[in-house]
User: What shape does this take?
Amino acid sequence: MPTLTSILVLAGIAGTSFTLALSGALMPGPLLTMTVAEAARRGTRAGPLVITGHALLELLLVIAVIKGLGPYLKQPPVIGTISLVGGLLLLLMGLEMVRKASGLSLQHQTQAPAAGGNPVLMGIIGSLSNPYWIIWWVTIGLGYLSTAGRFGPAGIVAFFLGHIAADYGWYGLVSYGVSRGRSLASDRGYQFLIRACGLFLLVFGAWFLSTAWNYLA
Assistant: This one.
């Protein structure tokens, strides 16, 4: 039977994974453009369908890591190096998000033309075509996945559920707003979220660097 401590740990993993994933989901990119375009044609269901393709691709990646790279990632030098690179990248991304927040807008995204095609497949293609997604998983994602894996299968499940919950929540909200002919989030609110997530990345980046120091020292 799970103890209160283990439940709190898993809740913490899911919560931080959610916030970390939301930081990436909020930034404009191929998936946002595809979601907005498809929402104009398919309605609210466009967001969940696009993100399902995205989530399936990430699930395959997590399984591949568990099956083939798990033992390798448990080595202290590997965890330390991944944490170091991920921490530095988080700091750079956090600074960039805070710096650019005031100039971001959701309004221009509604001008994207309908992309057509299967939205689930579009979610897969949109993810693979985004360099940010690939870099995130090679550095930050693997770093946090290896940390969550220290708590066994439950830790990995908590990490993944928290991660995809952020994607489904944000893109579902965007598709709902677009399907109603307006955005539910104002530019000011959007910019506030970007700044908040940028600050979160800075804090999380510092934590990753401290983890890297412990493993490499």
